[in-house]
Design a protein that fits this description.
Elements (H helix, E strand, L loop, with lengths): L23 E11 L14 E11 L5 E10 L2 E10 L3 E5 L7 E4 L2 H10 L15 E8 L3 E10 L7 E6 L2 E13 L1 H7 L9 E3 L11 E6 L2 E8 L2 E8 L2 E5 L24 H13 L5 E5 L5 H4 L2 H6 L3 E5 H11 L18 E4 L2 E4 L6 E5 L10 E5 L2 E4 L17 H14 L5 E4 L6 E2 H9 L4
Parallel strand pairs: 6-11, 15-16, 16-17, 17-18, 22-23
Antiparallel strand pairs: 1-2, 1-10, 2-3, 3-4, 4-5, 5-6, 7-8, 8-9, 9-10, 12-13, 13-14, 14-15, 19-20, 20-21, 21-22, 23-24
Bound molecules: zinc ion.
The site of zinc ion (ZN) has 7 residues, from loops.
Length: about 450
């Protein structure tokens, strides 16, 4: 999998192996990440770069790693997080700004530490030869099995540079800088944040787990919680079969080498295949009639092949139907249930809205158009509930939007007040808060909007 291309001996000038004492160093890459190429941008096209700052702290004489990242996970969401991997079995999410930390006991700590250390090219130097190029492949939603390449440049200078290419497309570029951390500061890095005891979380929850549970919202309308950590999906039971909102897929971490899925072993279609199996148990003899892909982001649309294999119609906003049709039928898709079917995944475009008829619970798919999150989004309205993804993700019952993504929250609140019936309750993929429309009306009136 990994191919080492050693540099010329003359290029290798760090000389860390000749150091007289064990050092702790922080290596930071300042650069930019292409959310478009990652299928997490406004449009599913390369060239949508946002600033990214990746730092890794490592030691000469241990395998411990402190990883700190800052940047955008979506066009409308800026974030930063820090995690410590302390082999053999401790992973700590470091909340230095607002303790407590969270701690997981899992053997994955050692594996992830190894993968993450390579962000510092000095740590990717077996036998003293730094690696200029690292090559592997990864199974990425909406792409298939594609090559992933790390190219280091200027390793002999003070500011080494890294480029990461996925399927031949530049997805990250950054320039590095290193500083030595003095021993007193270094010792504190590996301690829990003072002020509150860390919260112990069962180790099998790191980094994500599948623990599905069916929750009834009202007659015929359900939420499958815990499809994977932080993913909850609406399911509507109609006479002709189940209608599911979104086709979840895994998530590959590109700052690790080799990159690995958050839920390993499921490949691209596996998570949605698991959801379909779960629904077959909960609703025996009820086929899957349709899946509504809310938007083009790969964690929401990437599992659609599983639904097509189960015989479901696949719906998506008209603006991205062609892209999804191409992506889901890519020749690079690894074997899955759809591979056994001689056919094409057909993506049905929703221009304004489509109603999937039913005597009891008709289901309306509504194209909401362009938002600060994505070029287009579908919502699913059924039985008084409206499911959407990533436009309204409340983290409380407050009457005003959370301030870290207020632009999108305000956009959605205004759309919902104008377009949804007054007694609608809004639900979403990533949080379990349910929002009555009246609260969104308060958003619109609040100072936050
Ligand atoms: Zn999204």
């Amino acid at each position: 999998m990994m191919k080492f291309l050693p540099a010329l001996a003359a290029v290798f000038v760090f000389g860390f192996s000749a150091g007289s004492y064990a050092e702790t160093t922080e290596f930071c890459l300042d650069g930019e990440f292409d959310l478009g190429a990652r299928y997490q941008g406004l449009t599913p096209e390369p060239g949508e770069f946002y600033p990214a700052h990746w730092c890794v702290t490592t030691e000469d004489d241990s395998d411990r790693v402190l990883l700190s990242m800052r940047g955008r996970s979506n066009p409308d969401m800026e974030g930063h997080w820090t995690v410590a991997f302390i082999p053999p079995d401790l992973v700590r999410i470091v909340n230095a700004g607002s303790p407590p930390d969270f701690e997981f006991r899992t053997p994955k700590a050692a594996v992830e530490a190894k993968r993450t250390r390579l962000l510092d090219p000095r740590r990717a130097a077996p036998n003293g030869e730094p690696l200029l190029t690292l090559k592997t492949s990864a199974e990425m939603s909406l792409r298939g099995q594609v090559p992933v390449v790390w190219n280091w440049r200027s390793l002999n200078e003070r500011r080494p540079r890294l480029e990461i290419l996925v399927d031949g497309i530049l997805i990250f570029r950054g320039t590095g800088a290193r500083r030595t951390i003095d021993p007193d500061e270094a010792a504190e890095l590996w301690q829990p944040t003072p002020g509150a005891d860390p919260i112990e979380v069962p180790g099998d929850r790191w980094p994500a787990r599948v623990a599905m549970e069916l929750v009834k919202l009202t007659d015929g309308v359900y939420l499958v919680q815990g499809v994977r950590t932080g993913f909850h999906h609406m399911v509507v039971e109609t006479h002709d079969g189940l209608i599911v909102a979104d086709a979840p897929a895994g998530w590959v971490e590109l700052h690790q080498f080799p990159p690995e899925d958050l839920v390993p072993g499921l490949s691209i279609s596996g998570l949605s295949e698991k959801l379909i199996d779960f629904l077959a148990e909960e609703f025996p003899d009820r086929p899957i009639r349709a899946v509504a892909l809310t938007h083009h982001h790969d964690d929401h649309a990437g599992g659609a092949r599983a639904f097509a294999a189960a015989g479901a119609d696949v719906y998506a906003p008209a603006e991205i139907a062609r892209f999804l049709g191409n992506a889901l039928n890519s020749e690079t898709m690894p074997p899955d249930r759809f591979s056994d079917i001689d056919g094409h995944v057909i993506v049905r475009p929703v221009e304004d809205s489509v109603t999937l008829d039913d005597d009891v619970i008709p289901v309306q798919l509504i194209n909401m158009g362009e938002s600060p999150h994505s070029i287009s989004s579908l919502g699913v309205l059924a039985g008084g509930y409206f499911f959407q993804s990533d436009l309204h993700v409340p983290n409380s019952d407050a009457d005003e939007p959370r301030d870290d993504r207020s632009e999108t929250e305000c956009w959605f609140a205004a759309w919902a007040v104008e377009n949804l019936p007054g007694d609608t309750v809004v639900i979403n993929t990533h949080s379990l808060f349910q929002t009555p429309l009246s609260r969104l009306a308060s958003y619109v009136e609040s100072d936050g909007c």
